[in-house]
Amino acid sequence: MLSSLKKQPADRIIGLSALYNADPRSKKIDLGVGVYKDANGNTPVMRAIKEAEKRLWDAETTKTYTAMIGDGGFHTAMADLVLSNSVDRDRISFCATPGGTGAIHHVLELVKLTGANPTIWFSDPTWGNHLSIAKHLGMPFAKYGYFDNYTRSVNFEGMISDLSNVSKGDVVVLHGCCHNPTGANLNKTQWGLIADLLLEKEAIPFIDIAYQGFGEGLEEDAFGTRLLAGKFPEMFIASSCSKNFGIYRERCGLVMAISADPDTSEITQGNLSYVNRQNFSFPPDHGARLVTMVLTDTELRANWVAELEDVRLGMLSARKKLAEALRVECGSDRFGFLAEHRGMFSRLGATEDQVNKLRDEYGIYMVFDSRLNIAGVTEEKIETIAKAVIAVGI
Ligand code: LMR
Fold first, then answer.
1. Which of 35, 2, 3 has its CA nearest to residue 16?
2. What is the reported pTM?
3. 93-149 pLDDT, tens per residue?
4. Is 35 touching ligand 1 by the criterion CB < 6 Å?
5. Residue 237 pairs with which residues in a beta bridge?
6. Domain 10-44+313-391: which topology?
7. Phi/psi of residue 332, nearest 5 degrees
């Protein structure tokens, strides 16, 4: 039976890490997978998480199951963080999942369970795994224009024009902040206009928020999500704790599904529980428990907020320095967009050929679509990167 399996294409982000690891060059530079790195190239355990782990080690007396949808304390803490008071809590159903990817998968499974067969709309471009999951689940999907490859900013006209074609009940996936892969984000006015359009179309927003705190700040990055949550009768949110709590391998994510009223929410809740049971029963707990401890303890929270802010400001500074180094190299401001983008990524707008040249000739690894991880742009590498980018003709 297994001999009839077809080879699956390698994931183009994760596959890049394997290539990087196998490269023997000592001066190679990793700007690929979206993992935060400090100035020494390490991905540290955040201080507050480390402290929470110590406390948990002392205090935890059992490893028995939690609830099928994860721990209620985690749901509340995350709803406070992501949604604040934008929507009544009795309209939200929750489901803890293995990472943000698990949350995205579960939302789409929940949509399938409704029996409707809506088109799932994704930005063009989007995180590759969005499309891959929709394909895997056999769901119809479409793309809406999002990025202007010339200005390297949001193509808002194109976005509005394409989203004018959504049908009632279609699901529109929006990146809550720090768009992956482009780094170009909606401003507040644009969020408002998208909300108006989708409300008029009776579409259902689905927010993927994986980088809260990496863009403009914890509260600011939740602006779009909260705005929409306050307006729409139904909405989905997939939230990830991998990046902003630095707990990648713990696999900690959460679905928040907003229903029109509390009675429907109860049924939605039961369906989310069912989805977990069919896939793996109980969700992982360790990461969720640490996040809950950090968010609900004044001292741990302050420590986490401070470190997250350092991470954010560090990336912002790297953006400005790289844009400046490129200005010096090319004698123009055409890379100024790097300083305007927010979050972990920017899309350079290079061809795949140029990206390959950067890798083969200069040992600089970025994703094939010229997405670079700004956290990998450490001080001593800036000049090398800027020179190489210009040398390959970007
Ligand atoms: C990324 O986009 O690099 C991250 O979200 C990691 C991943 O799983 O692709």
1. 35
2. 0.97
3. 999 999 999 999 999 999 999 999 999 999 999 999 999 999 999 999 999 999 999
4. no
5. 207, 256
6. Aspartate Aminotransferase, domain 1 (3.90.1150)
7. -145, 175
